[in-house]
Amino acid sequence: MKYSELVRLYGQLDSTTKRLEKTYYLSEFLKKTAADDIEPVILLVQGRVFPSYDERELGVANQLVVKAINVASGIASAAIEKEWAKSGDLGKVTESLIKGKKQSTLAAAELTVKKVFDNLRKLTELTGQGSVDRKLQLIAELLSSAKGAEARYIARTILGQLRVGTGAGILRDAIAWAYFPKAVEDVFVKCHSCHKTVPPADSCAECGKELGKEAKAAAAEIEAARGEYNKILDKIQTAYDLTNDFGVVARKAKTEGAAGLEKVEIRIGTPIKVMLALKAETVQEALDTVGRPAQCEYKYDGFRLECHRRGNGVWLYTRRLENVTSQFPDVVEYLREYVKGDNYIIDSEAVGYDPKTQKYVPFQNISQRIKRKYDIDKTAEELPVEVNVFDILSYDGKNLTGEPFRKRRELIEKLVKDAKRKIVVSKAIVTGSEAEIERFFKKAKADGTEGLMLKKLDAPYKPGARVGYMLKFKKVMENLDLAIVAAEWGEGKRAKWLSSYYMACNDNGKLLEIGKVSTGLKEKREEGLSFDEVTELLRPLITEEQGRLVKVKPKIVLEVAYEEIQKSPTYESGYALRFPRVIRSRTEEKGIHDINTLEDVEKLYRQQKKVKG
Ligand code: AMP
C-alpha cells in the first residue's frame, strides 16, 4: 500500500472532530487494506509502531528531525529553526520545506506504508555509538522520498505528535464496520443524495449533505436493532482485552471473521488487561452482588502484578500494563522457585513489608520500586515485597478466563507453594454469613491489610472489565450504637412515617446529638427493619411536637454505619457522621447506658485520621 493513501486518511481524520465520521473514514480504509498491511496501518493511525504495552521507543528528539530536514532538503539548520520558531509546528515546517526541494527528488521511489513502518521500527533498534547518525539517515531517507503532506505526517509520527483522534472506541467500531457488514447493515442508513450506506448522523459522512428525514427516522429504530451489532462489538472488545493490540484483532477479523475473534488466544509475554473491582459500602451489599456463599479475601495494599512465565522467561506487568520485570528480580526468582509449571499467567497483588518487623507497609512506602532503574538489588532488599496470588488466566497453553473462579482458585492452591513474605496464595474464606465476614474483616485489618475483596465463585475472568465479579470492601469504621432522641415526619409517600432520626451518643449520662439518619430502613416490613416499625416504636415515646419535628424519650437504639466521622458545629456532640445508614435495631440488647459514648466517638475519629495518614 502506498503511504500517500494512508496520508489521505490522516487528512480525512484531521478534517473532522465527529466520532462517527472518523470511524467511517477508518472503516472504509480498512476495507481496502490488504491483510499484510493491517497491523502496520492500525499502529500507524495511532501514531505508533509498536502496541502501547511495548516499551520500545523511537527516541528521536526535535533537533534530529531538524537535521534530517537539512540533509533531505539542503536547507541550513538555522533557517529551518527560524521557520519552526515562526510556526511552532515542526510537522508543517517539514512539509513546506521538503515540498520546496521537489525537483531533486523526482526520481525517488514512492513511499509505501511498509517502507515507512520498517524505517521507524529500525529507529528503535539503534543504540550506542554511531546510532544517532544511523537514525538521521533513516529519517532523511524517508523525508527525501516524501511528497506533499507525507513529510508532515512522517515528522509527526517520529516526534510522537500524530494526533488524529482515533481512540480505542473508534478503532473497535471501525473494525466492526469494515469486516462485519451484515451486522452493521441494521445500524446504518442510506443517504438520499449519494446513495451510500452511512452511519446515522446529521450529515452524510460520504457527501456531507444533510441526511434526509427518513434516514433520521431510521436512526431512531436503529437502537432496537443493535443486538447483532453489539455482539460483534463485544467480540472485538474481548479479543482486544486479551491481546491489547487492535492490529492483531483487525487482521483476525478480516481473515477469519467472528470465529477468528473467538479464537484469539492469550499470548504469554503479552500483557492482558486485568479485571477490575467495584466498591461495596456494606457486607450485605457486596453479598447481594456476588451471591452467597462468596469468596472473601484479604485486600492487600500493594500494587497489581500480572506474572507471565514461559519456559525460563518471566514477564511482570503492572495494572497499566507497564513491563516491570527488571525492577523485580526477587519476584522473578519466587515464581521460578515456588510456582509449579513453566507456562502460565497469574494475577496477584505485590505488597511491601518492613524487613525488620515483617509487617505489611502501605503502598506509598514501596511505590518507588516500580520506577527504579538502578541499585535494583539493594532496593529489593530494603523494600521487599510479598506476592499474593489471587487468580490464574492461563495454564499450560489453556485459556482459563472462561472457567469459573472457584476452579481457577483450586488450581492456584495446587500450583503455588506458600513461602511467607515471598509468594503466597491470598488469604481467603468461603462463606455466606455476614457475621463471619465481619470477623474476617477485623482479622484482615489486624493483619495490616486494607479490608476485603468479595468474589463471585462461578464468575469468569473478564479482562479489563469492572463487572461486579469482585467487590472491594474497605469499611474503615466500626458501626455505632446510638439512641433516637428526636425524629421528623416524612414527606410525600413517606408522610405517614417518622422517617428521619436524630441520633445521640452518651456523654456521662447526657445524650448528645451526632447526626440525622434516614437511609437503611425499608419501606416494607418483610424486607427488614422498616420505617413503619420504627414509627410505631417511637409514637408512644413522643414528648413534644414542633411542626414536622418530634422529640422522643430516648429508648430506641439503632446500629448506624457511616463513611467517616467529621468535626461539626451542627450537633451538640461536636461531631457529625458522613453518609450514615441504619443497619438494625439494637433496642432489645442495649439500653441507653450501653450505647456508644462521646469518648468512643473521639477515639474513632482519631483512629480514622491515622488510617487515612
Ligand atoms: P482499588 O485499587 O481500590 O480499586 O482496589 C482493587 C485493587 O485491589 C485490585 O486492582 C488489586 O490491585 C488490589 N487487590 C488487593 N488484594 C486483592 C485480592 N485479594 N484480589 C483482587 N485484587 C486485590
Topology, number of strands: 22
Largest sheet: 7 strands, antiparallel
- Helicity range: 40-55%
Ligands bound to this protein structure: adenosine monophosphate
Quote the distance from N terminus to C terminus. 58 Å
CATH level 3 topology of the largest domain: D-amino Acid Aminotransferase, Chain A, domain 1
CATH superfamily of the largest domain: DNA ligase/mRNA capping enzyme
Count of domain modules: 3
Describe the structure.
This protein has 613 residues and is an alpha+beta fold. The protein has three domains: 48-158, DNA ligase i, domain 1 (Orthogonal Bundle); 276-473, D-amino Acid Aminotransferase, Chain A, domain 1; 480-612, Beta Barrel (OB fold (Dihydrolipoamide Acetyltransferase, E2P)), CATH 2.40.50. Helix content is 41%, strand content 19%. The chain contains 23 helices and 22 strands. The strands form five sheets. Strands 14, 15, 16, 17, 18, 19 and 22 form a seven-stranded antiparallel β-sheet that branches. The longest helix is centred in the middle third of the chain and has 18 residues, at 246-263. It is globular. Bound molecules: adenosine monophosphate (AMP). Adenosine monophosphate is lined by residues 277, 297-300, 304, 319, 349, 390, 426, 453, 470, 472.
Summarize, please.
This protein is an alpha+beta fold and 613 residues long. Helix content is 41%, strand content 19%.
